[in-house]
Design brief:
Layout: H1 2-9, H2 13-18, H3 20-40, E1 44-48, H4 54-61, E2 65-70, H5 73-82, E3 89-93, E4 107-112, H6 122-134, E5 136-148, H7 149-159, H8 163-168, E6 188-189, H9 191-198, E7 203-210, H10 219-223, H11 227-240, H12 244-247, E8 252-259
Parallel strand pairs: 1-2, 1-4, 2-3, 4-5, 5-6
Antiparallel strand pairs: 5-8, 7-8
Length: about 260
């Protein structure tokens, strides 16, 4: 847990999502959140692993009643400060693995947009999804974000020149799946790993979406785009982000699930 605390205390997460290339992930996620909310006329939202509140506060300002749960105290302090004056949001410190403070079927829409990045065992991922599903009303949506394996191999291992230490420290399998531990901070998955987690819950998958697609491969170019070019990039991204042949190459994905009635 100290690795995670240290990481976020030295990380400008708001700045990451506010950068032009970071906006692609944020705007895409918000697009699908709104679609899910409209499909079920959702009013109440819980965000588990809310970070500094980028999504929670935006949703509260859009009129939703928002409950934000965040593990890291540093992030929670920023969230509460950023949410000052926003009356329809409540923030709590807590873990995705234990939402016992909340009753069953308490929320219309559930967001699990960060915890799966930092859970290293199948059992913990299963538990986090189980808790998210439990607090969601029947027929409600659960949106779960993941960090993907292959973009990390391409960008971190090869592009950034980390191949030798990765091999020396036995941090990758023979089929090039990254081995993650808490000191690496992020847990990396493939689409088939996500499917196995989904099988453990009382849900139906609606979509698996690439929330940033190829954006991170060319982040500098994206950041330098003029407004018109960036809008066209978003058009291209939205037109391709549901293509399953491309999803696994995205840095981040969004698994859109619906709780069975």
């Amino acid at each position: 847990m100290d690795y995670l605390k240290e990481y976020y205390e030295n990380r400008d997460e708001d700045g990451r999502l506010a950068s032009r290339h970071g906006q692609v992930e944020f705007l895409t996620t918000m697009k699908y959140i709104r679609e899910c909310a409209e499909n079920t006329n959702a009013k109440s939202v819980i965000e588990i692993g809310a970070g500094t509140g980028r999504y929670s506060i935006a949703l509260a300002k859009h009129g939703f009643t928002v409950t934000a749960v965040e593990l890291i105290e540093h992030n929670l302090d920023i969230l509460r400060n950023n949410a000052e004056g926003v009356t329809n949001i409540e923030a709590y410190q807590g873990s995705a693995l234990d939402l016992s403070r909340f009753e069953d079927e308490a929320f219309d829409l559930t967001l699990l947009l960060g915890p799966m990045y930092h859970l290293y065992t199948f059992e913990d991922k299963k538990q986090a999804l189980s808790e998210a599903v439990r607090v969601t009303k029947p027929g409600g949506y659960i949106l779960v974000a993941y960090c993907m394996n292959e973009p990390t191999v391409i960008q971190y291992v090869f592009k950034k020149g980390n191949l030798q230490p990765i091999l020396e420290n036995n941090m990758i399998t023979e089929d090039w799946h990254c081995k993650s531990e808490p000191k690496e901070v992020f847990e990396l998955v493939r689409t088939e790993d996500i499917a196995e987690i989904d099988k453990t819950a009382n849900v139906m998958r609606i979509k698996l979406v690439a929330t940033d697609g190829p954006t991170h491969y060319m982040s500098g170019l994206i950041d330098d785009m003029d407004d018109m070019t960036f809008e066209k990039w978003l058009e291209f991204h939205y037109a391709t982000c549901e293509r399953q042949d491309l999803v696994g190459a995205s840095n981040h994905t969004l698994d859109i699930l619906r709780k069975n009635s």
